[in-house]
Amino acid sequence: MKNVFDITDFGAVGDGLTDCTAAIQRALDAAAEAEGAVIVPPGRYCTGTLKMGKRTRLQGYSAWNFRADGSSVLLLNDPEAVCLLDITGAFGCSVAGLCLDGRKLGKKVHGIYLYWEKYNGGSEEDTPTVDDCRVGNFTGDGLHLEHIWCFSVRHSMLHRNGGAGLYMDGWDAFIIDNWFTANRHCGILGGPCAASVTATGNRVEWNREAGFRFGNGDSLNVTGNFFDRSFGPALWLGGGGQFRDTAVTCNVFRRSGCPDGMTFTSPYESSHVLMDHVQNVTVSGNTFKWGVNDDGGGTRSPDYGVCLSDSEAVAVQANVLYEGALKQTVVYDGRGNNLIRDNLSHMDR
């Protein structure tokens, strides 16, 4: 039985002009029946919203770089769409080697989208994977995953979106080896509940509100990431609820907390790590450095290194904050049974 389908066999034309929505959807429907794969050859394919099926793969030829899309590109052509690619109910689906370009059309249009009305809405693990993709220029989020249960995003670039690079409301995530670049909101934004998240080896840079922001949830592992030039805290935990049971280790935080003409709600938003109402958290073995823009201009930031308030059972220990902040390296309100010790710091303005 045939189980690999080329979108050009269904009438898709990669000229960047022809509306290919119906053709690509026919290929996806055929793959859903066979639990097979859809191939997107090199080209630029204009499309509205596409819907994936269970245990199917949408496969392109990536070849993207930092500044430009690669070979297989899906271009949004419907400003009224909710998203370009809807993976709701597509349990076990895989999206690989594609570039998705929102072209800044519409309002709050997302790149890849999953939505259930409630947690565990699909009654089984969603388990989508997004690999080697470049998703950008959407007016909403690059990836918007609401009430999701289990997913992975790997070696992808989520860039220049009007919302977050990745919005997640749910649990069980593996977020590894990605670029989160120049998103208008955050690199990653957690929803009402974000739990059991492993974020490792990502580059998080030039995002407007924060690098990663998680307001409420638990069990976050932030290890070996590079946070650079966040316009707000590089890592923001709590504040919108309670975040707990978290390890923040062996990351590099550089040039965080830059106001860039914005007005912060709190002066402590000019920081590398901002924690409010967190519990059972370790911040250890990280390196922090203040700085300016690449050209030597721009605002020097941040004012503060690690800020901790209204929290319990938090250890901020063995971090290197040499030239880590302009005003104060560690800010602690003294409340709670917390451990702040052995952090190397040196004030240099």
Question: Keywords for this structure?
Answer:
mainly beta; 19-stranded parallel β-sheet; single chain; 349 residues; eleven-stranded parallel β-sheet; 1 helix
Give a structural overview:
By secondary structure, this protein is mainly beta. The protein contains one helix and 32 strands. It has one helix at residues 21-34, and strands spanning 4-6, 15-19, 37-39, 43-47, 50-51, 57-59, 72-76, 83-86, 94-96, 99-101, 110-115, 129-131, 134-136, 143-154, 157-159, 166-176, 179-181, 186-200, 203-205, 210-214, 217-223, 226-228, 235-249, 252-254, 271-284, 287-289, 304-309, 312-317, 320-322, 328-332, 339-341, 344-346. The strands form three sheets. It has a 19-stranded parallel β-sheet that branches. Strands 2-4-7-10-13-15-17-19-22-24-26 form an eleven-stranded parallel β-sheet, with helices on one face. It is elongated, with a radius of gyration of 21 Å.
Oligomer: single chain
Residue share in β-strands: over 45%
The parts where pLDDT drops under 50 for at least 5 residues are none
Overall 3D form: elongated
What is the mean predicted local confidence, pLDDT? 96
State the end-to-end distance: 69 Å
Question: Helicity range of the residues?
Answer: under 10%
Number of strands: 32
Report the major sheet.
19 strands, parallel
